[in-house]
Amino acid sequence: MAKKRDENASWALHILQAVAPLRAVAARSSVAISPPSDQDIIALLEAADRIELLKESNSSDDQHDLMNIFGAVRGYAEMLYEDRAQLHPAIVETLPNLLQALSSPDVALSKTATHAKTIIKPLATPKTNEPGVILAVDDMAENRELVSRLLSKYNHTVITAESGEEALELLGTLGVDVVLLDLMMPGIGGAEVLHRMKADEALRATPVVMISGRQDMDQIIACIQAGADDYLLKPFNPILLQARIAAGIERKRWHDREAQYRLQLERSEKFIRATFGRYLSDDIVNEILASPEGLELGGDLREVTIMMSDIRGFTTLSEHLPPQQVVRLLNRYLGRMTDIIIEHNGTIDEFLGDAVLAVFGAPRKTDDDADRAVRCAIAMQAAMTEINIANETDGLPCLKMALALNTGSVVAGNIGSERRAKYGFVGHAMNVTSRIEDAAGPDEILISDSTLKKLPNTYTVGERRTLSVKGIKEMVVVHQILGVSE
Amino acid sequence: MNQSHGVVLLVEDNALNRDMLVRRLTRAGVEIICAEDGDMALQKMREHKPALVLMDMNLPIKDGWTAVREARADADICNIPIIALTAHAMDQDRNTALDAGCDDYATKPIDFPALLSSIQRLIS
User: Fold this and answer.
1) Tens digit of pLDDT for each residue in A315-327?
2) Do A456 and A484 touch, CB atoms closer than 8 A?
3) Which of A145, A152, A140, A41 is nearest to A88 (CA)?
4) Angle ∠(A160,A166,A169) on CA atoms, nearest 5
5) Is the Cβ–Cβ distance between A148 and A138 less than 8 Å?
6) Which residues lie below 8 Å from residue A461, measured CB to CB, with a gap of 6+?
7) Chain A residues closer than 8 Å to B16 by CB
8) Could you tell me the end-to-end alpha-carbon distance of chain A, in angstroms, rounded to an integer?
9) Nearest chain B Cα to A41, which residue?
10) What is the model's pTM?
11) What pLDDT was estimated at residue A127?
């Protein structure tokens, strides 16, 4: 159940990340969405908000709801895709990724094993002479008509505005590729429209071509300094007009693709952070992101210090408590332990009920792995005191933790299948650690001889014991750690 | 004949999913009415005599399985075709659905084109 929940949470996260670009595009004032798609998008985003709320829930009803809501999001996304011919291209671009994220949880899981670059599509080269949406702003009706006629020949969609006010209103609702802006107009003139566009985050990137008479050259220069992309003098040459428009559209397309690319990069980085951040400290996640191999942490044999912890008698304890209290008890305990392990740069491999499996020395190896692991173990045992004080206040039982540490060689890497892989560890040293953990008593820290050999002389070492371990002939020597001797 | 043509009853307790299906089916030209639990489903079946029922099996108050059995035992509505919508993809669920008296079966998340063709087949 917990595993299923984690799987759903990870799927939910993946879906939410795929919804984010759609949300961003839909919020852009330059992207107009006509009915019925506008309602579909609103409902889809509402459903996504609901996923956000439920994704971490432990209740099985909520988990069931979550599946239904995934279905609802998928339905809306499919409807939008069916209507893609009527939708703004920026919306359509977000849909394939979203549909893929919704198709199956396995996609989300297998992506954890894939390098970021496979998630990011390369920057496509925009086509030239592509038709676009042109807003022609001119107070003279005959000029608007002329521009419409000339540009329609090249299959552009021409929208006209007869004043600066109208132009700004239209820009707020339509996805415009290029603005043809007459300089001299009554009311809000061309220079002022330009100024307001450049001050508006959503409109800043839309190319503007100024149109004016020869006598207004000074003002044209001022407009170009203020951010206009180009200019045309009246009466204008039709070929020159088309050339300026084509260049403007191409600039706009590059800009849109660049924005999309940046969004994808951001999204994949966020995804890596969210997936690994739960198990690794920030600086290790940063290292993974910075390394050119990204997530291709191939399997390799390495020496690590393994930590296993367990609450003694937890199964019996949990049978006598209502489920909500068991979860509360576990969350408080595991939450605190996670923080301590991450503070000590340990990698949390797994929670198995009340048991924690963590590794020091992978994915990044340092000289003090064993030392850090033992310091971490001492800090964990020390934290049990405050956890138990809090438990007592809430009328919950007192917990006793046993901790085992062992240093040895393991194979570390993305283990699993193409469809489902996780960064994990295998090797005999893992089994030995588990055996030591069985032998550890409540409130005790037991470490193997191999870990002790790696430690500086700063610890108080207690009783020495020998254990027999299935599969190896020699006895395993273990030591109690009592504290730091300074 | 008091049975109205083409009206489909959708029984689904999850509001988000219900709204989505209503919108989608309406756009596909299906006239639709809704119920949110098993009791309401039986009541609406008796009242409206829909041409078809799409029934989520995991319902509050009275679950889908019980509602289907009761519908099949009621001479007034026993002939209305029912398509079960369930979250489980197991073969045994399929059999349970068919045993309970459902005419067809769709697994969530819904494959919409398949559901539409199933609806068309059962209504005609």
Assistant:
1) 888 888 888 888 8
2) no
3) A41
4) 110
5) no
6) A452, A479, A480, A481, A482
7) 43, 46-47, 50, 68-69, 72
8) 45
9) B20
10) 0.41
11) 46
Token reading at A194: 């330009």
Percent helix, strand and coil across chain A, each rounded to 5? Answer: 55, 20, 30
Task: Give chain A's radius of gyration (CA, Å).
Answer: 31
Residue A341 — φ and ψ, nearest 5°?
-65, -40
Nearest to B20 among A36, A43, A102 (CB): A43
In the block, which residue shows the tokens 């039986």? Answer: B42
- Complete DSSP assignment for A321-366: S-HHHHHHHHHHHHHHHHHHHHHTT-EEEEEETTEEEEEESSSS--
The two structure tokens encoding residue A306: 């393994």
CB contact under 8 A, B20 and A72: yes
State which residue of chain B sits closest to A63, comparing Cα positions.
Answer: B87
pLDDT digits (tens, 9 = 90+) for A456-471: 988 999 999 998 877 7
Quick check: A401 pLDDT over 90? yes
- Tell me which residue in A39, A47, A71 faces B110 most closely, judged by beta carbons: A71
Is residue A224 pLDDT above 80, yes or no? yes
**CA dist list (Å): A2 to A175, A204, A327:** 46, 48, 11
Given a contact cutoff of 8 angstroms between Cβ atoms, the answer to whether A341 and A348 are in contact is yes
Best A68, A81, A86, A100 residue to mutate vs chain B (most B CBs within 10 Å)? A68
A361 vs A120: which has the higher pLDDT: A361
Contact A71 B20 (CB under 8 A): yes
Q: What is the ipTM of this complex?
A: 0.82
Describe the crossing of helices A190-199 and A164-173 by its angle, rounded to 10 degrees.
30
User: Is A11's Cβ below 8 Å from some Cβ in B?
Assistant: no
- Name the residue facing A64 among B19, B24, B58 (closest C-beta): B58
Q: Extract the tokens encoding B40.
A: 């309401």
Please check the confidence at residue A407 and state whether its pLDDT lies above 60.
yes
pLDDT at residue A66 in the model? 85
Tokens of A80: 């939008």
DSSP A385-425: HHHHHHHHHTTPPP--EEEEEEEEEEEEEEEE-SSSEEEEE
Q: Residue A254: exposed, middle, or buried by beta-carbon count in 10 A (0-12, 13-18, 19+)?
A: middle
Residues in chain B within 8 Å Cβ distance of A37? none
Residues of B in contact with A39 (CB under 8 A): 23
State how beta strands A300-311 and A401-416 pair. Answer: antiparallel
Which pLDDT does position B34 carry in this prediction? 95
Residue of B nearest to A74 (CA): B109
Alpha helices in A87-203 (DSSP H): 89-103, 105-111, 116-119, 141-152, 164-173, 190-199
Question: Which residue in B has a C-alpha nearest to residue A50's C-alpha?
Answer: B16
Instruction: Output the pLDDT for position A284.
Output: 66
pLDDT (average), residues A141-146? 85
